[in-house]
Design goal:
Helix content: 25-40%
Oligomer: single chain
Distance between the termini: 235 Å
Number of helices: 8
Largest sheet: 6 strands, mixed
Structural class: alpha+beta
Number of strands: 10
Strand content: 15-25%
Length: 365
């Protein structure tokens, strides 16, 4: 009996030990399941920020026809796949529609049947802008809606320190943004929300911008070769001696464009094909030569330049001697009478010529 009691007691102790180790394991499993479920929901819902859809509604309106609802849902799915901020993109399309129909005075299309043509235009604009945004690299697409003026100022300051004037920098970005903002022809930044695309294009262009300063000695001709990256640009700040002009020739691919600016950013030669230009004496330096490549492959250029000294200033002409004054005819003034003086005899008058005698009269019969 004592042996059986001992065995039973040890068996009960093992069962208690097993039960004591089971509950912590069960609690750990329950906690891990709860935490895992919460983390999973958070991960799946990440980036699904509620944003107002066209018409000011946060969700797709049930009153729209099923075909329009399906089209809008496909658009939202594409935005999610491209990792583009939905709220910013919808505001972009809204702004594009209102710019196209200014007579609506800021009124977006409603769900009514009368606004069905406008909703169709909205969907077409959304497809166009989605195709443009898709051209941007993924890191830039993620930042759309979050670019700020301070980001641009910091980026601009780095290039200004390398000799690139702000005016040239804006021209460079404005030229590169034509594919994304085709209606923008000026250097001025567009308003929001279009400005976000301008910022993204600036980042993309400046990543491929190369700056190569050139020293141009007086009177010495130079010939250089360089490569302009695909869809990129190259800037040549050309430092001239004081008061010098510049003879400049650029040759290369027809896909390249060139423009020339003064040190202060004044446009000296407009954007156009590669060519030969001659600049008069420049007050300050450097002259900025900007080359852009619209092709999909790098392009080589041949650059020839010469700094021309200013023309010598001719010496001032000597003063002409004054012309002699001509004497003026003045009547003779008679001498005053002197008392006691004998007047000079008058000159005798010349005798009158003698009159020849008359011929004799003929004899009479």
């Amino acid at each position: 009996m004592a042996v059986s009691d001992s065995l039973r007691r040890r068996h009960e102790e093992r069962e208690e030990e097993a039960e004591g180790g089971f509950w912590p394991v069960l609690i750990a499993l329950v906690l891990s399941a709860v935490v895992g479920t919460a983390v999973g929901w958070w991960w799946l819902s990440r980036g699904k920020v509620a944003a107002p859809a066209p018409g000011g509604q946060s969700e797709l309106p049930s009153s729209l026809p099923p075909s329009e609802v399906d089209q809008r849902q496909q658009l939202l799915n594409r935005l999610r796949a491209m990792q583009v901020d939905r709220a910013w993109f919808l505001s972009l399309v809204d702004a594009a529609l209102l710019a196209q129909y200014p007579e609506r005075n800021g009124r977006l299309p409603s769900d009514s049947l009368e606004d069905a043509p406008l909703r169709r235009v909205w969907n077409e604009l959304a497809e166009e802008w989605l195709a443009r945004v898709e051209q941007l690299p993924l890191p830039l697409r993620r930042r759309l809606g979050n670019f700020s003026a301070s980001d641009w100022e910091q980026r601009q300051g780095g290039f200004v320190g390398q000799g690139l004037s702000p005016a040239v920098l804006r021209e460079l970005v404005s030229a590169s943004v034509q594919n994304l903002l085709p209606s923008r022809a000026s250097q001025a930044m567009p308003p929001e929300p279009f400005r976000q695309i301008w910022y993204a294009a600036a980042e993309m262009m400046l990543e491929n911008l190369r700056i190569e300063p050139i020293e141009a000695p007086s009177g010495n001709a130079q010939v250089l070769s360089a490569e302009v990256p695909a869809s990129g640009a190259r800037l040549f700040p050309i430092r001239l001696p004081a008061g010098h002009g510049l003879a400049l020739g650029v040759s290369g691919s027809p896909l390249l464009q060139m423009s020339v600016y003064s040190a202060g950013g004044t446009l000296l030669e407009p954007r156009g094909p590669l060519r030969v230009v001659t600049l008069d004496s420049q007050k300050s330096s450097p002259v900025q030569l900007l080359l852009t490549n619209d092709g999909v492959a790098p392009a080589l250029i041949r650059l020839s330049l010469r700094a021309d000294p200013p023309a010598p200033t001719p010496p001032p002409a000597p003063d002409a001697p004054p012309a002699p004054e001509e004497p003026q005819d003045t009547p003779a003034t008679p001498a005053p009478d002197t008392p006691g003086a004998t007047p000079a005899p008058a000159a005798p008058a010349a005798p009158a010529p003698a009159t020849p005698p008359a011929p004799p009269a003929p004899p009479s019969n």
